[in-house]
Each structure stands twice: as structure tokens, then as C-alpha cells.
Amino acid sequence: MLVACLFLFTFLFSACYAAKPSVYIQKLKNNHYRLMVAGKPYIVKGVCYNPIPIGMDYDYDWWNDPAKPWITDGKMMKEMGINTIRLYQVGRDPQAVKQVINDFYKLYGIRVLLGDWLGFWEYPCPFYGDDKFQEKVVKQVVEMVNLYKEEPGVLGWILGNENNYSCLGHVNPWSNPEVDAETDPQKQKLMRAKIYYSFVNKISQEIHKIDPHHPVGLGNGELVGLDSAAKYCQDVDFVACIIYRGKTFGNLFKSLRMTFDKPLLLAEFGADCYDANLKKEDQNMQAFFLESQWMQIYENLANTKTGEGNCLGGTIFEWTDEWWKHAPDYPDGWKIHDTESSWSNGSYYFDIQALGNKNMNEEWFGLVAISEEMVNGLNKRTPRKAYYVIREFWKNPVTKKPAAKKSR
């Protein structure tokens, strides 16, 4: 009898242990959240990755680039201390995607967050209010998960990016007859939000059915719409927030706790390194902002004394500069590192006095600069100051106020 009981206990223990997901989010007794990977706490120390070479645009198939940019980049990332990359959308060739995932993980120990745009860039607009459109997107995401869920380097899934802005009509607006029949603009926004977040929730439920071993994140611009997400999108595991607030994230962590109590991944944040006012590169400015941002991330990790304890880490925007961004419709512009600012953000105050207050330079966000000089078939990579500053912070994460950026 004793032997039989011991056998049964061993069997049940082994079964429970085997069933435990390899990547999951743990809620602690103090209501803090932490990401667990292979039984150990995991802080996401990452970057957004899209290695577009000079002269190419967003449609370039870098996954099949014979120079394999991820090999060179992965080595540099490991030396910096990066453990995660975020990919907004998988490539069209599954074998190439698997090769990239496996090379990052097996060669450098870097895990991958895989994403899907959820049809956000469909032309003329994403029809989230249309059942057939939803079915097409769900099928696409399920296919992605089935293809890559067994890859050991996969960390999790992120659904969308700033798609919530389409509910407001700010970017890629959409509607349907039911929404159009409502005359109150505010009620229209709430109706679209209900449709969209319910749709994301449905996708999350489908993912959990086929892959219980990796968490699912809601890609969301700022905290906009999360009051609706709290009602209609409870089946996501974390919020993947896209946010640009300069030196500090302000009340972000507390506001999320009060609005939609889910763990937070800073899935896109950062600072460009071009001073639009003085019209020159300023690596000190970028390093200053990024160090301050990482200090606040660390202050809000689980089991910290002063923060909310709901942060899982972050993925900086971005690894390398993308020279195509300012003139995406003009191929000649893809060969120019454009210095014209695209939009204004007063939180990045060092160069807000630029003409028209336009101080955000889309082509200058890289931790690593690229040049026209070729090395082993790739544009030469040169780490900027922020690369070294964040590397040292991760080695010794002292959460104190960063030294003021030196005057110019």
C-alpha cells in the first residue's frame, strides 16, 4: 500500500509539474506580478527589432537576407544584456521565421515576443465591425501560434500595437452600419471600442486553447480605451503598452492598476537621438531619457517597495535606425537619413523649441546607428551611447535620478 501511494504521489506530482506552463505570469500575495520562465523570475530587457537595410522599406524580407542580420545583431545584443526582442509581425516564410527564432535563442539566449498587426494596416481600413474580416484575422493569428508555439525561444504573443486609436477615428478609422446609426460621437467611440476589445478577447481565448504555455498581450496605445478593455478583454494576460512620455512614465503604473488590473509590459518606448532644434545628433539626450525610463521600470517591478509592482520589463524602440520611415512612399528617400521631424511631443523637452515644435525624428530612434559602409554584407552597425548606458544600468540597476544631461 505504501509503495502504491508513493507511486501515485510521484505520478500526480510529475503530471502537475509537466502541465505547468514554461512561461507564465505569477500573481504574488502582495498583488504584484512577475513573469516566470522555466521556473525563474524573468525581467524583459528587450528591443523592438526590424533590421531594414538602407535603401529598403518596411516590405523588405529581412528574414531571408543572405547576410543574416540577426547573427551580427544577436551577438551585439547579448553583449549589451538584451534577453528579448519584439517582432511586430512574422515573416511570410515559416522556415525562415523559425531559423531566426532558433538562432536568437540557441546562439544568444534571446527570446522572442511574436506579434500580429490584426489587420490594422489593411487598405482602406481595418473592418473590425465585419465578421468576415474578423474571421480572416483570427485564422491568420491561429496559424501563427500553431506554427511557432513549440519553438523554445518563444516568450509570448502580442496582439496589435496601437489599434485602439482606430476606435477613436484618429488612425485608420472604421465603422459599421450599427455604429453609423448612432448619432452621438462619444457613444460611437464606445461602440467601436466594445467591438474591437471583444474581438481581441476572442483571439486571446483561441490562443489559450491551442497554447496554454505562453502569455498573450494586448498591444495598446497609451492607456486609451482600457476602461473598455476591462469590460470586454479580460482574457489577455498582460497589457503591452506603447508609450512616449519622455523622462518619466508619470502615473502610468498606478493608472493601469486602477483601470485594468493586468501586468504591464512597456512594449514600445524610447527616445530619438537627433536634436531637431540644434539640427544635429545628440546621443547624450537619447541616453538620458532611456536611463530615466529604465529606472522607473525597475521601480515598478514585483517586490519593490515604492512602485506598483505590476511591470514585467520593456522593449525599447528600437535596435537600429530605419532610414525609410520619413518618406515611405518615395524610394529615393530610403537612401537618405532624413533629419526632418515628423511630429511633436513636449515630453521630450530638450528640442521642443524646434520649428513648429516638431521634435520627434522617426529615423533616429536606434540604439545602434547604421551607415552606408558595408561589413559582411550588412550596413555597418555602430552602438550609440545609450547602448552602453543601459548595459551598465542592467548590470547595476540603481534606481536613482539620472544625472542631468550636460548642457550644450
- How far is the first residue's CA from the last residue's CA? 80 Å
Low-confidence stretches: 1-18
SSE string: HEEEEHEHEHEHHHEHEHEEEHEEEH
The CATH architecture term is Alpha-Beta Barrel
The CATH topology is given as TIM Barrel
Structural class: alpha/beta
- In total, the number of domains comes to 1
Strand order of the largest sheet: 4-5-6-7-8-9-10-13
Summed up, the helix count is 11
Mean pLDDT: 93
- Using only C-alpha atoms, the radius of gyration works out to 22 Å
> Which band does the percent of strand residues land in?
15-25%
Helix content: 25-40%
Query: What top-tier CATH class fits best?
Result: Alpha Beta
Principal-axis shape: globular
- Strand tally, please? 15
What does this entry look like structurally?
- The protein is of the alpha/beta class.
- The protein has a single domain (41-395), classed as Alpha-Beta Barrel (TIM Barrel), CATH 3.20.20.80.
- The protein is built from eleven helices and 15 strands.
- It has helices at residues 2-19, 69-80, 94-108, 131-148, 165-168, 177-180, 185-210, 226-232, 252-259, 283-299, 385-395; strands at 23-27, 33-37, 40-41, 44-48, 84-87, 111-116, 154-159, 216-221, 238-242, 264-269, 274-275, 280-281, 311-316, 368-375, 378-383.
- It starts with a helix and ends in a 13-residue tail after the last helix.
- The model is unreliable at 1-18 (pLDDT under 50).
Q: What labels would you give this structure?
A:
alpha/beta; TIM Barrel; 8-stranded parallel beta barrel; 3-stranded antiparallel sheet; 11 helices; 15 strands; 34% helix; globular; disordered N terminus
